[in-house]
């Protein structure tokens, strides 16, 4: 290799597979992407072919390499991905079944069965997670029920980041942050839980070895190198869960700072001094995880399943002919509070606090004066309100004050009005990464550690020149008014849950308890 080394970070997200080339200081030299190849076998469902995901990734890498002056300088890469989707592989490491999207609702029907096997209390105390039907254990239960031949023939299960790293040339492995999203992880000991595996009826050999992020697991396979133009000397490192890898890149590794990862779904990640194993967080829907490079970093992770997704939905519904920037500016002209319109953005699953996978979006306060700008403003406010409500309820449970700082990453950070609304509710400026692809940057750092450029995370971040812009609270919105709207949102989001349960019973033709 001649010249200074380059690093590649791959972010296999809900909407796109992104590949970015960085200098060791974090400067982006080139990028390329492809749509994540989900398809819908029926309305409301989403799955993908694992080999099509590999093809999309290789195509993005080939385009990336073509944009680099000397792609042979690429020294290392790693992959970060969504957390709960996984690939079942046979004895020859061929995919056995379609990959259910992390948000695919089919495992919801098995939730009671999974809870009966594992118990919600045991999940909270061992794995630190709620009995969420999006977890990997629920996906495996679905395969055992609906694709039993594939499940019986499976030799291993790999998360999407693990699968891509494996197909690019690495050994089969995962990290603790992805393992944390299975419901089968022992949070206290940082390993697979023999107790939970036995209770779930899953053989231990099905799950890959858990290694620290940044561990070298191989180099680029010759066929991948030929297809992409990247060198076979490129080291492949263990990556991780997208939100957790974003934490590492942005330095959100202490309890004084919270990460807002603003994508199709929105993640709230708050580091902890130590895991909390009494079950009280999981009981109301808050999940814990662990990410490790050269030291373990426990954290609480929660979020809104439909953040940018709700904003995109509203845009397409009310003003598809307008550019997003024009609609945002129209919404800026609407007074705070959206003229009494309140939106609960639970288009898919509900956010904590509470344990309600059957939640739905809700629009309250509709009047004849509500136009497209007003509705869009309400959706932006609803997304911001939901995030702040989660953060405040979490801090109450932890018995601590709000974090001193909030750092934001992801594609939705380009929406300035949304950020100003968030800052008004947070009560102080939000530091926004000027390069929003921090997940890919974190993956690139893991590739650099695997390539031997640095001994660990602290050394890798020491030379990282990741700039942040301070976005102030929305001007002209008094704090008292913002707090009053937040209180109203909390009451509304809690109050509508019983109504949604009743509506679900009507749709399904069943009666609720204590109902005539």
Strand and helix map with partners:
Blueprint: E1 6-12, E2 16-22, E3 28-35, E4 47-48, H1 50-66, E5 74-81, E6 86-89, E7 99-100, H2 111-118, H3 120-127, H4 136-146, H5 148-153, E8 156-159, H6 160-168, E9 173-174, H7 176-179, E10 185-186, E11 191-192, H8 194-200, E12 209-210, E13 216-219, H9 222-228, E14 235-241, H10 242-250, E15 257-262, E16 266-271, E17 287-292, E18 296-304, H11 308-318, H12 324-332, E19 342-344, E20 362-364, H13 372-398, E21 405-409, H14 416-426, E22 430-433, H15 438-450, H16 457-462, E23 468-471, H17 479-508
Parallel strand pairs: 1-5, 5-14, 9-12, 15-21, 21-22
Antiparallel strand pairs: 1-2, 2-3, 4-7, 6-8, 10-11, 13-14, 15-16, 16-18, 17-18, 19-20, 22-23
Structure characterization notes:
Helix 14 links the parallel strand 21 and strand 22. Helix 10 packs across helix 15, helix 13 runs parallel beside helix 14 (416-426) and helix 13 (372-398) crosses helix 17 (479-508). Helix content is 37%, strand content 21%. It has helices at residues 50-66, 111-118, 120-127, 136-146, 148-153, 160-168, 176-179, 194-200, 222-228, 242-250, 308-318, 324-332, 372-398, 416-426, 438-450, 457-462, 479-508; strands spanning 6-12, 16-22, 28-35, 47-48, 74-81, 86-89, 99-100, 156-159, 173-174, 185-186, 191-192, 209-210, 216-219, 235-241, 257-262, 266-271, 287-292, 296-304, 342-344, 362-364, 405-409, 430-433, 468-471. The model has no long low-confidence stretch (mean pLDDT 93). The protein is built from 17 helices and 23 strands. It is an alpha+beta fold. The strands form seven sheets. Strands 17-18-16-15-21-22-23 form a seven-stranded mixed beta sheet, sandwiched between helices. Strands 3-2-1-5-14-13 form a six-stranded mixed beta sheet. Strands 4-7 form a two-stranded antiparallel sheet.
């Amino acid at each position: 290799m001649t010249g200074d080394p380059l690093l590649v970070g791959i972010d296999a997200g809900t909407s796109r597979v992104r590949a970015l080339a960085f200098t060791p200081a974090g400067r982006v030299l080139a990028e390329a992407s492809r749509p994540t190849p989900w398809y819908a076998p029926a309305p409301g469902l989403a799955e993908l072919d694992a080999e099509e995901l590999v093809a999309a990734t290789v195509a993005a890498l080939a385009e990336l390499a073509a944009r680099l002056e000397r792609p042979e300088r690429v020294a290392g890469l790693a992959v970060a991905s969504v957390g709960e989707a996984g690939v079942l592989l046979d004895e020859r490491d061929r995919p056995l079944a379609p990959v259910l999207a992390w948000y695919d609702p089919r495992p919801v029907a098995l939730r009671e069965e999974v809870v009966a096997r594992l118990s919600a209390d045991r999940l909270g105390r061992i794995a630190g997670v709620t009995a969420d039907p999006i977890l990997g254990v629920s996906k495996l239960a679905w395969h055992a029920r609906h694709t039993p031949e594939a499940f019986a023939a499976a030799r291993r299960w790999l998360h999407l980041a693990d699968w891509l790293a494996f197909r690019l040339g690495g050994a089969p492995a995962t990290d603790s942050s992805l393992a944390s999203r299975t419901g089968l992880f022992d949070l206290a000991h940082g390993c697979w839980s023999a107790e939970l595996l036995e209770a779930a009826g899953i053989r231990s050999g099905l799950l890959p070895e858990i290694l620290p992020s940044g561990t070298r697991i191989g180099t680029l396979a010759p066929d991948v190198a030929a297809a992409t133009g990247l060198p076979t000397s490129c080291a492949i490192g263990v990556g991780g869960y997208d939100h957790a890898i974003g934490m590492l890149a942005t330095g959100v590794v202490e309890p004084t700072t919270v990460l807002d990862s603003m994508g199709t779904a929105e993640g709230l990640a708050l580091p902890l001094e130590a895991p909390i194993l009494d079950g009280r967080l999981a009981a109301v829907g808050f999940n814990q995880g662990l990410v490790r490079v050269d030291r373990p970093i426990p954290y609480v992770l929660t979020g809104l399943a439909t953040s940018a997704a709700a904003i995109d939905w509203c845009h397409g519904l009310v003003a598809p002919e307008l550019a997003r920037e024009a609609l945002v500016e129209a919404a800026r002209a609407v007074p705070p509070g959206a003229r009494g319109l309140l939106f609960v953005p639970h288009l898919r699953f509900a956010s904590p606090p509470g344990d309600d996978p059957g939640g739905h979006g809700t629009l309250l306060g509709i009047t004849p004066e509500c136009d497209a700008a007003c509705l869009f403003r309400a959706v932006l406010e609803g997304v911001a309100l939901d995030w702040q409500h989660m953060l405040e309820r979490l801090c109450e449970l932890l018995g601590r004050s709000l974090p001193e700082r909030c750092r934001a990453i992801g594609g939705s950070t380009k929406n300035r009005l949304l950020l100003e609304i968030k800052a008004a509710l947070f009560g102080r400026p939000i530091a926004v990464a000027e390069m929003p692809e921090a997940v890919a940057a974190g993956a690139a750092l893991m590739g650099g550690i695997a390539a031997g450029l640095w001994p660990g995370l602290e050394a890798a971040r020491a030379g990282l020149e990741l700039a942040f812009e301070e976005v102030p609270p929305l001007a002209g919105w008094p704090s008292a008014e913002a707090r009053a709207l937040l209180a109203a949102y909390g009451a509304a989001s809690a109050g509508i849950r019983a109504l949604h349960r009743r509506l679900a019973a009507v749709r399904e033709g069943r009666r609720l308890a204590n109902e005539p």
